[in-house]
Amino acid sequence: MHTAQDPLSVEVTLPREDVALLTVEGYLDVDTATEFQHHLANQLHHGRRHFLLDLSAVPFMDSSGMNIILRVYQEARELPGSVHIISPTPAVRRILDLTGVSITVPVSESLEEALERVDAQPETPAAEPES
């Protein structure tokens, strides 16, 4: 196991009580994905329902990073909640587009745009049909 030249930095801020903004800096790959997962799990544990992932300082992301984003997306949808990607770098945006992740997980250009999308979502769980 080698250590990453660029260690991952994840800064968590709370624009609102149920919204976690995770500002990610560095390579989001097999070496750093577990750390990213821990930050997301911690925020889920503390009752956050909406996750804003600022990827503007992530020059590279592999399938490990994408899998974590998709996993938290599934968990957030069940709450109900949401996941939004903010300002991915061109290389990361290309990966998101090629894999179809950007079709599933909304991509916003700014924090404000992501928060507007959070506000526009219905508060009812989609998975529970009325009987």
SSE arrangement:
Layout: E1 9-16, E2 19-25, H1 33-45, E3 50-57, H2 63-77, E4 82-86, H3 90-99, H4 101-104, E5 107-108, H5 111-120
Parallel strand pairs: 2-3, 3-4, 4-5
Antiparallel strand pairs: 1-2
Condensed summary:
The chain is α/β, with parallel strands linked by helices and 131 residues long. It has helices at 33-45, 63-77, 90-99, 101-104, 111-120, and strands spanning 9-16, 19-25, 50-57, 82-86, 107-108. 40% of the residues lie in helices and 23% in strands.
Overall form: globular
> N-to-C SSE series?
EEHEHEHHEH
Structural class: alpha/beta
Strand sequence of the main sheet, in spatial order? 1-2-3-4-5
Number of helices: 5
Amino- and carboxy-terminal Cα gap: 52 Å
- For the secondary structure, the number of strands is 5
Mean pLDDT: 90
Low-confidence stretches: 126-130
Rg (C-alpha, Å): 14 Å
What would your notes on this structure say?
It is a single chain. The model is unreliable at 126-130 (pLDDT under 50). Strands 1-2-3-4-5 form a five-stranded mixed sheet. It has five helices and five strands, in the order ββαβαβααβα. It is globular and about 35 Å long. Strand 3, helix 2 and strand 4 (82-86) form a beta-alpha-beta unit. Helix 1 (33-45) runs parallel beside helix 2 (63-77). Helices cover 40% and strands 23% of the residues. With 131 residues, it is an alpha/beta fold. The protein has helices at residues 33-45, 63-77, 90-99, 101-104, 111-120; strands at residues 9-16, 19-25, 50-57, 82-86, 107-108.
